[in-house]
Fold this protein.
Amino acid sequence: MEECRYAESDYEKLSKAELISVTTCMSYIQGVVDGYAFGVATGSGERTMLCDIPEGVTLKQMALIVLHYGKENPSELHLPASINTMKALNKAFPCKRSG
């Protein structure tokens, strides 16, 4: 998730290489979210993570959440980026338990 380090930046001030990095980060996050949604749709239909991402949350916001999670949990950076992405978003937008 090294590419997410530019998520905090003013995009108009980034170099072409930095813009490519932040775009890679956001594309990756969108792919993880879409992949999860596809798995839910074609599987059991039960969501255990990424239940409640509010309408209107932007890719930049999700990238900042993932970046912050990595900074707060450096001992988990060895895990696959997809796992840390899911953990970060689930921590920010936890599933609401019924009952």
